[in-house]
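Hi everyone, sorry if this is the wrong subforum. Our group has a chain we'd like a structural model of before ordering constructs, and none of us has done structure prediction before. Sequence below.
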Amino acid sequence: MQHGMDVRKRNSNILSFLKKISTFTGFFFFSRFAAFAQHNPWFKGMYLQWGYNTEWYTNSTIHFKGAVNGVPHDFKAYNAKAKDRTDLDGLWKNPLAVTVPQYNYRIGFYLNRQKTKAIEFNFDHTKYIVQDGQQLHVKGTVGGKYFDADTLVTPGTLFHFEHTNGANFYHINYVQFWPQNRHNKTSGYFVPMIKAGLGFMIPKTDVTLFGKRLDNRFHVAGYMASVEGGAKYYLFKKIFLEATAKTGWANYTNALTVDGGKAQHSFGYLELITTLGYDINW
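Answer:
Right subforum, don't worry. Here is the predicted structure as tokens:
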């Protein structure tokens, strides 16, 4: 029992380290790009944002294909319901664990001095969890035997499926701003906006199939598109709060499962996001 606890603790520490390295690497890459952008005549400044989100997902048909312990399977589970897990209470339990909840960061580059247009690099750490205990219609083959029936879906009877470290949306957005600052104020004004972008997902899928579990590695698993709208409010000359609503479509074409198997599914989503931002002018 103690050995099992030590293994879990070690795995948790390794995962935490990898998440920190991933975040650091992302910011290092964008900092180097920012240094390039500062000397590029196309860019007239930049902004940085950090915040948190919550999601709602449409139902999804999940197609599992592969073999577990040498037994092949190829089946679909129709209209599976899923939810997010914000984990915002983690900020109170451990205020330094800022990447445990569903977080967001944005790094944007203004395309004009008026700050009405921008290109934005956008990351959403989201979590997608198929709810256990659903009665789903399942159709396909397992071990060469065909079935087509309503089935109670649990980790023990069929599968458990989640992208919880996470679903991980990466975008490049075009952003249009409409600053409401007619009197040249330095603070206390709103900037409505709309964003549109394309991107891809790098999930870490935790899946149990026929009682066998695997917490997979990060990998590119599909593509997506989204639109987002809202406003930011300047608290000070360079510091602002931003609140937006985002909707999009994500298509996971090759999520990893157990023993080299794959899963395919797609869904729509609605996301509410709040961030704190900082302008950098040059």
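For your construct planning: The two ends are 58 Å apart (CA to CA). Residues 43-281 form a domain with the Porin fold (CATH 2.40.160.20).
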